[in-house]
Amino acid sequence: MDYLINEGYPVAAKNFASEAKIQPTEDFASIQERVEIRNAIHQGDIQKAIEKINDLGHQILDSNAELHFSLLRLQLVELIRTAIATPGGDIFPAIAFARAELAPRAPTNPKFLDDLESTMALLIFPSDDLAPSLAVLLEPSLRKRIANDVNEAILVSQGARRESKIRSLVRLRAWAEQKAREAKKDLPSHLRLGLDNEVEGQNGGHDTIMQENGGEDANDGNDGNESI
User: Fold this and answer.
1) How many CB atoms lie within 10 A of CB 22?
2) What is the tens place of the pLDDT at every residue in 12-53?
3) DSSP of 60-118
4) Count of C-beta atoms within a 10 Å radius of residue 193
5) Structure pTM?
6) CA–CA dist 57, 60 (Å, integer)
7) 80, 16, 21: which is closest to 46 by C-alpha?
8) Are 166 and 3 in contact (CB under 8 A)?
């Protein structure tokens, strides 16, 4: 239940509460707000996500310059993605956005400046011949990471746990395995967690669960098909 609420799966959480005959303490409407923000980021509509975050409270981004910059940088990535996807695409909206929104913030943090420079490099090199450090900016993993950071920031602003207990346990288990391997303990090359549909090489099966549940709230009618 804790995992479903924190990760933003209201339909599954509601079903779980009903089956387990427990009274959820979380307002499902607030979960849905986080779902809509997550979906907007996953779909590349960063402006919509920022507006919805500010509707929840301006302090979420005002008090977290790094998160705000990450969102604006992702918005720049999406503008560049649109420009380079079409032959002869207009790159000036991306340049204007970078100049207005990111350039004033970049000097305040060396990492911001590095991130801005690497993002603008997407306009210089052919999209089919990018260095790995640049190609990753166009991968869905960047959207997922920032969506997760946003979700955690919203939870903190609402006085909730930053991450679910099961996530904390998975991190603790990974840390323990790493320490055991550093100590040269006799361990199998891969230790399975025993989660359903766990895929070799994924992060303890967590990515599989997230992908299978990813469309749950988009159509809000899939309430019996999640793999939890």
Assistant:
1) 10
2) 555 555 566 666 656 666 788 988 999 999 999 999 999 999
3) HHHT-HHHHHHHHHHHHHHHHHHHHHSTT---HHHHHHIIIIITTTGGG-HHHHHHHHH
4) 13
5) 0.67
6) 6
7) 80
8) yes
DSSP 8-class letter at 213: H
* Contacting residues for 31 by C-beta, under 8 A, at least 6 apart: 5, 8, 9, 10, 13
Cβ 205 vs Cβ 195: under 8 Å: yes
* Cα-to-chain-centroid distance, residue 147: 3
Q: What one-letter code names the amino acid at 21? A: K
Residue 126, token pair as written in the block: 């052919």
- Number of CB atoms found within 10 A of residue 4's CB: 25
DSSP tag of 194: -
- The alpha carbon torsion through 28, 33, 36, 42 (nearest 10 deg) reads -100
Q: What is the pLDDT of residues 189-219, one digit of tens each?
A: 877 765 444 444 444 434 433 333 444 444 4
What's the burial of 139, exposed, middle or buried (CB within 10 Å: 0-12/13-18/19+)? exposed
